[in-house]
């Protein structure tokens, strides 16, 4: 299976990539673009952590610091985390997992990538021509009436890239409905597919709202129509409602696909059928739906009515239940399994630990009387990094390692990968756990300088971030190395179930020489023949 | 002890202990579940680890509805305890006691301007007496700020164009951080002040302006906020139309806190926000029976002057009611309308 034609060597030349309609090649285009954005966003984070090493604002000027945390947030949220798993792994794997030749609308898929690039270009233009300093949340009236930075280009970048999300979501939903292989019923689908289905619903229903919101923001800023600015007769709290109506569900856009990956990894590396398939599948949908009803917990202190706050509080607790159900089911899957600590599994187990802490601290913030104290402090910063980095990014890295052989036809080196996974886990905890304490002690977020009593915790955090940086650098290096020097990957190096493993690595352009027929449920590891790789 | 180890901020208000108790409960529940899950994940994955070259045929366990129900219902029950406990405390934090001292705080880039009803003003400092509830009415001149005193465990956004309130009762003499917690531009992290908690007698002396630190505080010559408001009321000509028996404008004495019927037949509570809006944008919610003749005062009065006008209008109510209070407006009697202004 070495010298046969596959999607990578089927065609050469730059245009065979830039005009490709192959979902696998588009996934690679996304992989390169979002990796670039991740490195850029990471460099901003590095500068922030260096500044916070000392209480005084001595490394960066105040305005520079404010721009850096804003651009770190915008780039990481809108241009890395939101597209990361769906656009790379979802794009590559959804057709393969359901036995299809491609997504339902291949041209639309390519258009999504161009739209993403176009949006990213606007935002990068804002970055290089002076930056933007409103925070990634763009709160009004600061963003519309006061800030004199590149707010509109950054906002338009988000507006444009939103269409990429919407079209990707549409493509996934149609593909999952219409293009499943014969015999692949809904409840035989891998949970990765369920997770992406739920994510796509949020893409389609939530993204238009952020698009409208940033457009209104640009209109008020440019033409002084009173929408959000009270001096013009607008309502600044309206902006927060609209912004979080998308941006809270956006957290589930980041975490749901990651949860889908975890279900694949846990089953494969414990060689066991998933525990509670139906509950995990339905909990993804429950999270997607309930996730739309909790945005008001970002407004507990904004002057929102007490009754509204009470309702948003109780709904926020409810959305925690389906997440907890997933964690319990993954844990139960390990029972009587045959657990192998391959690098993707280390990421998966790490995900469970970090996501648990992120989820539990979410309960602290949903608790009204406690939220008052830690709202807008480092407690919140720590909480959402546990979800978005500890959760979403760990899942993404686990997934990249797991499907790397399928995507590139090469194995990554196992031991460096295990060590990197452990470094990421330790570095992450050292970075963000002290921030819970700093927040409870009262350190507000987005502070360029801070009172000296918070220094010890900040030094720990910066030390952790340095370790974390090494942990991210290692995969970047050895994965590139593996493209040339890695062992050639067999079709199914992990002995995994799932249709994507039944075709060569890397797959041919048409994915499957013959359309597969599915006769069994997902994760039928108990009835699988002894894998050849052992 | 936790405080001395640097793991807990000082506890200096009546609610601080209650917030920390809730925190302890949340920590306990989280620690239990973290250890349970981490223990199960580590324990199971080590117990069932694969030996090199081994192939185990794993059992086909589909799941257990009983377990699923159990691990949905139990967390649900625990979160509902969190919800009710947190909600109860939140409502306490939202309801200032009736005898609370009134302080107005206006945020602007990048300072806190404090107005004591007795007339003293200060910037980035807030002097308060020990053992007396203090109700803080907040607004902002420019962007959103957030009034945060970690030692008191309270925080409230100061939103331009409207009033929000918070309250605390200090229980320990000392100086505590006052942070701006909502990002507000370049010097956001420099928008730091302090709350100084004093013995009641020392506080009274400070209010009268003869404290040792009187020089830094910038006393307003002993003119109370109500008196400032009264002066403005005359200066701006409000009395012309708003005097007793006038047909041009509604009578203001006794109005605050009551329900007002509007032109379209709906009714609204005449709270601080309504009074503010009616001064700046009189046509927005016109009282039934009156013509839209009042001019706007937008741009003519500052946020602090607005607060003074409102304080004066509220003092009219309390004097008309025959209860000359010890302190002027804002603290006058059991007043349901007052409490609702924070919503």
In the sheet with the most strands of chain B, the strands line up as 3-2-1-5-8
According to CATH, the homologous superfamily of the domain at 225-340 in chain B is Cytochrome c-like domain
Helix-strand sequence of chain B: HHEEEEEEEEEEHHHHEEHHH
CATH topology-level fold name of the domain at 225-340 in chain B: Cytochrome Bc1 Complex, Chain D, domain 2
The largest chain-to-chain contact, stated as pair and per-chain residue counts, equals: A-B, 98 and 90 residues
Overall pLDDT of chain B: 85
Q: Give the tally of structural domains of chain A.
A: 1
Largest sheet of chain A: none
Question: How is the topology of this model organized?
Answer:
The complex is a heterodimer of chains A (534) and B (343).
Chain A: H1 14-18, H2 23-51, H3 62-97, H4 106-128, H5 142-146, H6 151-178, H7 191-223, H8 236-270, H9 277-290, H10 306-334, H11 343-366, H12 368-374, H13 378-408, H14 414-441, H15 455-485
Chain B: H1 16-47, H2 65-94, E1 101-108, E2 111-116, E3 121-123, E4 125-129, E5 133-140, E6 145-149, E7 154-158, E8 164-169, E9 174-180, E10 193-198, H3 200-207, H4 214-217, H5 225-235, H6 238-242, E11 259-261, E12 267-269, H7 272-280, H8 303-320, H9 336-340
Parallel strand pairs in B: 1-5, 4-10
Antiparallel strand pairs in B: 1-2, 2-3, 5-8, 6-7, 6-9, 9-10, 11-12
Helix pairs in contact in B: 1-2, 5-8
Question: Tags for this entry?
Answer:
heterodimer; A: 534 residues; mainly alpha; Cytochrome C Oxidase, Chain A; globular; B: 343 residues; alpha+beta; 9 helices; 12 strands; disordered C terminus
